[in-house]
Each structure stands twice: as structure tokens, then as C-alpha cells.
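We give the chain.
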Amino acid sequence: MRVSVLTLLLLLLPTSAAAQVYKCKGKSGETMYSEHPCDARAEPMKLRESPVSTPAPLQPTANEGQAAAPVDSGELAEAREAERSCISTATASIYGSSNDRVGTLQQQMSMLGEQLAAAEDAQRSKALRERMATFRQAISREHANAHTQMNTARRACVQQHRPGAATAR
């Protein structure tokens, strides 16, 4: 019941396009990402201020008699801000839901750990350890999946918001 109430409260909170992202260590040592600080010493991750690479300046082709109009700095700054906002929104969405799933798995592992401590027969202990190993694997897959989704979303944001990105690729 505790997790469902917490999840409900988190869903009711408004999300910000410029949400901060905190990198945390879970009880089992796994890395988690959250919109909220994990502890009093937590500092937000530094998100990249500039794009990964600067698009090449537009060059005239052999068929054109004049050069293409350059992108002005105001347009470029606006595009960079839109790109950062897109990436920030994707980060909060992808890692937020991933952390919820990982939290549920960790809670289930904790309950299994309590059962393991109380288990008296070796066969039951072995079964509980195997189940916990399955949860650890699921957590690892969840982290890998979130990272893959984030890389895909980051590329999509760059393609969508960077001037000349669609034609340069």
C-alpha cells in the first residue's frame, strides 16, 4: 500500500520541463536517477550546456550560384534551448518511470530478504536467493533499457531541434 500511495502522489506532482536530475546509489549499490534529491548531500547532475557537436555551416552546392543563408545566433540559441528542454523532459519521463519500476523490484527484494532471514530450511533459502537473483537481473535490464531509451530520445531531440541536423546526417 505504501508504494501505491507514494506513486500516486508522485503522479499528481506537476512536472517541469527543466527538471533537475539527481544520480543516486540504491541500497544494493545500483545507480538510480531521480527528480528529487536522494539525501542532504545530493547535487543535481550537470546537464550539457551546449549540443554534442556544432552543425557544419551551410555551404553552397555546385548547382547553386549563391550560398545558403546562415543560421543567426538567436535562432541557434533558441534551438539549443528547445533541444535542452526536450532532453530534460525525456530524462524525467524515462528515468522517472524506470526508477518507479526499480523501486518496486527493490521493495520485493527487501521482502524476500526478510523471508530469507526467517527461513529455516535450506531448500526455501535457496529458492529465495534464486528469486532475489532474478530481481537483480531485472533491475540491471531495467537500467540498460532506460539508458538505451534515453540515448534514442537524445538523438531524436537533437534531430528535431538542431538547425541543419536533419540535412547534415
